[in-house]
Design goal:
- The protein is α+β, with helices and mostly antiparallel strands and 340 residues long.
- The chain folds into two domains: 161 residues, no CATH class; 129 residues, Orthogonal Bundle (Arc Repressor Mutant, subunit A), CATH 1.10.10.
- It has ten helices and eleven strands.
- The two termini are 24 Å apart.
Length: 340
């Protein structure tokens, strides 16, 4: 069982913990602190850019999809910032990954809800989109809204938090750098960061197989490695299948409470959340060069055919196609090709 886990409901709630405001945050939270996965500063972040640079084709061929490490002040909340410039007109596919995103399309400021199937959209050549990808369970708490109503939807942020959304839109429409604006917007959302029970649920529903460890925080892409002598990864919370009843018992609550919390924080019930997180892990393994059979075992599938059925259902692709990036038309979140 490892260390005791926090209960979903505490008798004495801890005081709300706000995201640090950008005006008083540490230097690591500075808007200019956005860095590439290699640790290089992002040029131009925090400075005004031409009106046509984001959303209306200003970048042309200068860039395509790029991920940027979040400033220290957003650690644990934001997995990364990203920009994506379409190199050609056409349909784009987005894979489910359990995350939610704040997205500036150049004309709209959207919340991308949690997906359970590949989301298809269209892109225009040369148009750049930018966003923040939030860790599973983080954005609903920051917004102060449940995740379930946002399931498989893209919703205008102004419908959820009108004041902060309008202020951010004014800056974006004036041509300010999108990642800087979205970072400042995050500090002004009305909710609070999720409590520890959300992370505990996420870990409980995505246990790693023994002998596999994840390394991605400091790399250009998510990487999995096999360590033959490694102990059970990150002290797995539960033995066996990790039933909802076992999870509820470990977290000191009822199975119904687990289900309600999952819907509110992740937009899925426990079974679907486990399925999405397992798919996300398998995709990362496949892209890291792990064979389908080994990826299936490490991600918790019954066998390789089980993995194949799930990739077809969730991505419309075979494991081999995911490994090769055959359907990688865009990684635009929520649901991304950069998985963890």
């Amino acid at each position: 069982m490892g260390r005791a886990q926090p209960a979903l409901t505490a008798s004495v709630p801890s005081p709300p913990r706000r995201v640090p405001d950008s005006s008083t945050a540490s230097p690591g939270f500075d808007h200019a602190g956005w860095r590439s996965r290699r640790g290089r500063p992002l040029r131009g972040v925090g400075r005004r850019v031409p009106q046509d640079s984001i959303g209306v084709g200003g970048y042309g061929r200068a860039m395509s999809y790029r991920e940027l490490r979040a400033p220290a002040g957003l650690a644990g909340l934001v997995e990364c910032g990203w920009t994506d410039t379409a190199k050609a007109d056409g349909a784009r596919q987005v894979l489910p990954d359990g995350c939610m995103d704040l997205i500036w399309t150049g004309g709209e400021l959207l919340v991308a809800g949690p997906d359970t199937a590949a989301h298809r959209g269209s892109r225009t050549r040369g148009v750049t989109v930018a966003g923040l990808r939030f860790a599973p369970g983080a954005l609903p708490s920051l917004l102060g809204v449940p995740a379930a109503p946002l399931h498989n939807r893209r919703v205008a942020l102004v419908e959820l938090v009108p004041g902060p959304a309008r202020a951010a839109l004014a800056r974006l429409e004036a041509g300010e750098e999108p990642l800087s604006v979205l970072t400042a917007l995050t500090t002004r959302l009305p909710g609070t960061p999720p409590d520890r029970s959300v992370a505990a649920l996420r870990r409980a529903l995505a246990p790693a197989a023994p002998g596999w460890s994840f390394r991605g925080a400091d790399s250009d892409t998510d990487q999995w490695r096999h360590d033959s002598g490694a102990p059970d990864i990150e002290r797995r919370l539960f033995d066996g299948a990790g039933s909802v009843a076992a999870i509820a018992d470990a977290l000191g609550c009822t199975p119904r409470s687990v289900h309600r919390r999952c819907l509110a924080s992740f937009g899925y019930g426990p079974a679907v959340l486990r399925r999405v997180l397992r798919f996300r892990r398998a995709t990362a393994l496949l892209r890291a060069g792990v064979s389908p059979a080994a990826a299936a075992a490490a991600a918790g599938y019954a066998d390789q055919p089980h993995l194949s059925r799930e990739t077809r259902a969730l991505a419309g692709a075979s494991p081999g196609q995911l490994a090769e990036g055959a359907n990688r038309s865009t990684p635009l979140p929520s649901g991304s090709w950069t998985t963890a």
